[in-house]
């Protein structure tokens, strides 16, 4: 509200400054130099008031921004406070001892299930594992059969290809 009142005051001063300047010109034309000087002094004083008013408006706007930011900070702090209270209540419901007990029970259940799986699947004996390793070695030692390589020498001249439909020239076909 105060900012708005200061803005209205600025407008009144600005309008008054324009009128006084015009009046000072008129006084100079009429030859009343002393009155014109006095009027210009008054105008100068009002310009200084206008500058002070502008500074006050800036201060008020800065203060309003600071207040708004402080309100936001207060809401954040209130949110943090509520969050901490909620965490504390949750910690009271679930203690560290309770969590450790649940984790221990889970690990025991996993180990028990693993033992059941081993019994049902029938674990391999040491002899079975040795036999598997021997079979793996035998497979890797087998030589792969490679195709036979021709014993004839390769032809030295490649038959020329006719540009028509990529067919060999007739004299080369007959020679083969």
TrEMBL record:
Q: What is its main location?
A: membrane
**Coiled coil (UniProt feature):** 43-70
Enumerate the residue ranges of region (Disordered). Answer: 144-176
Tell me the GO BP annotations in alphabetical order. Answer: late endosome to vacuole transport via multivesicular body sorting pathway; protein transport; vesicle budding from membrane
**Parts of the chain that traverse the membrane:** none
Where does the UniProt annotation place the signal sequence?
Answer: none
What is the name attached to this protein's record? CHMP6 protein
Keywords noted in UniProt: Coiled coil, Endosome, Membrane, Protein transport, Transport
Please give the family membership noted in the entry. Belongs to the SNF7 family.
InterPro entries membership: Snf7_fam
* Upper lineage: Eukaryota, Metazoa, Chordata, Craniata, Vertebrata
UniProt subcellular location? Endosome membrane
Cellular component terms, GO, for this chain's entry? ESCRT III complex; multivesicular body
């Amino acid at each position: 509200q105060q900012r708005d009142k200061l803005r209205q005051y600025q407008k009144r001063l600005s309008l008054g400054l324009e009128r006084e300047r015009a009046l000072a010109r008129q006084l100079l034309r009429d030859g009343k130099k002393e009155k014109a000087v006095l009027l210009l002094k008054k105008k100068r004083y009002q310009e200084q008031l206008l500058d002070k008013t502008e500074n006050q408006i800036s201060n008020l706007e800065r203060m309003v921004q600071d207040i708004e930011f402080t309100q936001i900070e207060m809401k954040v702090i209130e949110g943090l406070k509520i969050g901490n209270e909620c965490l504390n209540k949750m910690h009271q419901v679930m203690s560290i001892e309770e969590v450790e007990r649940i984790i221990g029970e889970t690990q025991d259940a996993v180990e028990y299930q693993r033992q059941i799986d081993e019994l049902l699947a029938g674990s391999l004996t040491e002899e079975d594992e040795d036999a598997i390793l021997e079979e793996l070695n035998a497979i890797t030692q087998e030589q792969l059969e490679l195709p036979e390589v021709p014993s004839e020498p390769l032809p030295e001249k490649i038959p020329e290809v006719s540009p028509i439909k990529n067919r060999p020239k007739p004299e080369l076909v007959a020679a083969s």
